[in-house]
Amino acid sequence: MRIAVAADGGMVSQHFGRCPEYIIYDVSGNKVISRQVLPNPGHQPGFIPGYLGDMGVSCVIAGGMGPRAQALFEERGIQTVVGARGPADEVVNSFLAGQLPLGESTCDHPYGEDHHN
Predict the structure, then answer these.
(1) Which residues contact 51 (CB under 8 A, 6 or more apart)?
(2) Domain 2-112 class in CATH
(3) Where are the domains of the chain?
(4) In the chain, fewer beta carbons within 10 Å around the N or the C end?
(5) In this structure, are residues 94 and 5 in contact, taking their beta carbons and an 8 Å threshold?
(6) Residues forming beta bridges with residue 60, ordered by sequence position
(7) 3-class SS at 83?
(8) pLDDT at 104
């Protein structure tokens, strides 16, 4: 399994598409086996879901993500987890343990005004 976390300085970013970086976690069982930080390749509507999908990501975690981005991930069979907060490493470990507390997505843009894809 490969998980991508929208991040800002090691913390889960509240703005998926405009975060400075993505932390990619390779997971075996319920353990992280590798971690790499990739800079955000740039915000272009609809680009990042394909970019992360082509890297083999099967789950994306963020604080906020617009409905269009969520729909694009869903079309690719990629799970989205929104409403996460805190240090990315801790969030991923909590997610793998089935204990990740979630809140509301911090993105409140209507479908036609999605700025986080």
Answers:
(1) 41
(2) alpha beta
(3) 2-112
(4) N
(5) no
(6) 4, 80
(7) coil
(8) 58
